[in-house]
Amino acid sequence: MILSFQVISSPSLLGVSTFLKPRNLEPTRSRFNLIISKRYCTFPIFGVYSQLGNSQYLTPKEEVGIFVCDVHFSWSRTRPVLKGISFQVPPGQFCMILGSNGSGKSTLCEVIYGSLIPHKGFVKTAKPTALIYQSPDDNLVFPTVESEFICCLRNETEEKKEEMARSALRKVGLEHLYYSRVDGLSGGEKQRVAVASLLLLNPAVLILDEPTASMDASSREDFIRLVKTLVAEKNLAVLWVTHLQEEQRYADRLIRIHSGKVIYDGEPTKVTTSCFQVE
Ligand SMILES: Nc1ncnc2c1ncn2[C@@H]1O[C@H](COP(=O)(O)OP(=O)(O)OP(=O)(O)O)[C@@H](O)[C@H]1O
Hints:
- This protein is an alpha/beta fold.
- Helices cover 36% and strands 22% of the residues.
- The strands form 2 sheets. A 6-stranded mixed beta sheet has the order 5-6-7-3-8-9, with helices on both faces. A 3-stranded antiparallel beta sheet has the order 2-1-4.
- The N and C termini lie far apart (39 Å).
- The structure holds adenosine-5'-triphosphate (ATP).
- Adenosine-5'-triphosphate (ATP) binds next to helix 5.
- One of its GO terms (biological process) is transmembrane transport.
- Pfam families: ABC_tran (PF00005).
- This is Probable ATP-dependent transporter ycf16.
């Protein structure tokens, strides 16, 4: 907590901490990573490390949105989670990742995002890359909606900050919540605020890890339509993790993961019911 505070109040320290960190990086998910990445990673701090290896010999076939090449990752020596995942997502494509509980979807998201380093293989993403976590509380760092936005816009004047923040909130239908406290928002509102604040950073890639998990069916549909509209406007490469069959019809493409490997990669219409069964 003290560390997080130092990082927020001292961006210059951040560079040092971040560049020292990857060598000792423990495979943990932490608010430290979230705070760094959400507020300051508009350049590829972690991406540099995930591109090490033989990347100079392998180049993406398409313009890079997300390029994942033979990625392996284990949380422990005995239990590999990702066992050679490869795919690429071009800009403008809305790609969904499916898989049963524990199949490694969240781990893959964090490897692509750069907060976990693959043990083998590499990831290349267009920058900046933004990640929306499954739990709404993990996406918002500050106590008020206003401060959540103001922090993303540190180089703008006060008037410009408010104007940009309000405009972003308007796009997600929540301008009236500008002065609200974050802890008073519903799960769906928090996810909308999170998307709006991240879009202010002009990401090229948006990763959403089961973003609708806390929503009812109608909010889920509204949210997915909203994100689709916003990303189409900005031509983002999108990776949307889900295990909800009803969400798949919104995808341009589906990738199904099972036991750490890709077992389906193609059009949503060709997916069979068995692709959704929990093995
Ligand atoms: N921080 C961690 N430390 C150790 N093991 C972990 C950690 N996070 C995940 N794992 C393990 O890695 C495996 C994959 O987990 P992950 O969360 O990536 O799966 P998932 O497909 O996203 O699951 P879900 O659909 O339930 O969210 C699981 O066996 C899980 O127990």
